[in-house]
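User: Once you have settled down, look closely at the record that follows, taking as long as you need, and be ready to discuss the fold:
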Amino acid sequence: MMYSKYTFLLPAYKALFFENALKSIKNQVYDKFNVIVSDDCSPENLKSIYDRIVGNDSRFEYRRNEKNIGSISLVAHWNLLVDLCDTEFLIMASDDDVYESNFLEEIDSLTRNNSQVNLFRARVRRINENGEIIEEDSLFNSYESQISFIYNHYKSNAIHCIANYVFRSSVIKKYKFVDFPLAWFSDDATIFLCSANGVANTNAFLFKFRDSDSNLSNLHYTTEENRYKKIIASERFYLWFNDRVLTTLRPNDKIEEKQINAISYYSRRRVFEQIKAYNHQLAYKRSVAIYKWLCNNGFIIDRFIKVQYWWDWINKR
């Protein structure tokens, strides 16, 4: 059997762009990789697409969950696949995104030249359902310290996703993907943990992140229960981030001192924006509970000045 250095882990549920995703992995110029496709008990016939596109490719393996894990925890499915991986590096792929053919070739150059690094990031373009480019990622330095990486993750026009990252398997097996409801903020939390030794980044655009109506993030927006879960995930991430990441950052110079202060501000702002975005049309008691949480965690410092604004917001639900 050919030596494999990388494994694409592909949790699959939707058929719409599944063929494109498989082809983009199969057509990699660098060919020393494995793929585990994990059908999450999909109601669609993913196996027929798999057989037609990669069924005769020995690098690909197909498995199917007996029950739909993702409906309970998307991250549990991801971590199940992490445990199955036995190569040096892994990629948590998706069933609707696209890799450029030189993705692994460029990543392999990074891994060989940055032996101390545990996390590698490919530059991203966002595409729509028709494959048209609608947004381009920021340009990161070829190497970023943990502090500068987190700073740029929040401050720059970075496109936030998970399938453009390559993880050193031993490190992600240690931490696992951090599990928040609906996997909301799970990507941020996990890459922050794995960035302790810095992050190596490509200059080239090597990954296309698809934004479509079938995207799980968009589907999860449609019900009150899932909007509420996103708020709960935002709250949990905020507390987790302050405890597990922000308090551990140690600046090496004045620039990083300023970056840490900015990280604190921008992380708070992003959490608040997420809570505000998903608060509309929630049950009254839930909105009140969210308001109390924001007060208790310093988001609304002067309750007497801002309380009327918040209640007006709640009552516009």
